Amino acid sequence: MLDCPEPPAAAMADATPLRTVEAAAAALETLRARLPALVQAHPDLNDFLAVFRAECVPLLQRADDPAVRAWLQSELELILTELRAWPAADAWALATLHA
User: Fold this and answer.
1) Residues near 1 by Cβ (< 8 Å), separated by ≥ 6?
2) What is the superkingdom listed in this entry's lineage (predicted)?
3) Which of 6, 7, 36, 73 would be a feasible disulfide site paired with 95, CB 3.0-4.6 Å?
4) Residue ranges per domain, the chain?
């Protein structure tokens, strides 16, 4: 699901391991806060989803505990499900999803 080519350099900047669910949740909130900017830069849904997946890969790689990785992947899949559920997945709808 979340496999993709090389993640963006910005996403790889923080390589701090995510050893607890709390640390993973904080990293996930940082990603959620970036969603509106990502949507504006990639208004096409398929393009956005590819970029979103590329942003997720470094997070999953940083989760070195299997339980934390499973929790994080579950949360990322929920976000993807929410994003895909928009009938008219335009930039405004996506940008306001987690605002």
Assistant:
1) 73, 77, 80
2) Bacteria
3) 36
4) 19-97
Contacts of 72 (CB under 8 A, 6+ apart): 18, 24, 27, 28, 59, 60, 63
Here the tokens at position 9 are 């350099």
The answer to whether the CB of 50 falls within 8 A of the CB of 41 is no
- CA 27-59-20 angle, 5° bins: 60
The pLDDT value given to residue 15: 82
DSSP-derived secondary structure letter, 88:
T
**Phi, psi for 43 (deg, rounded to 5):** -70, -20
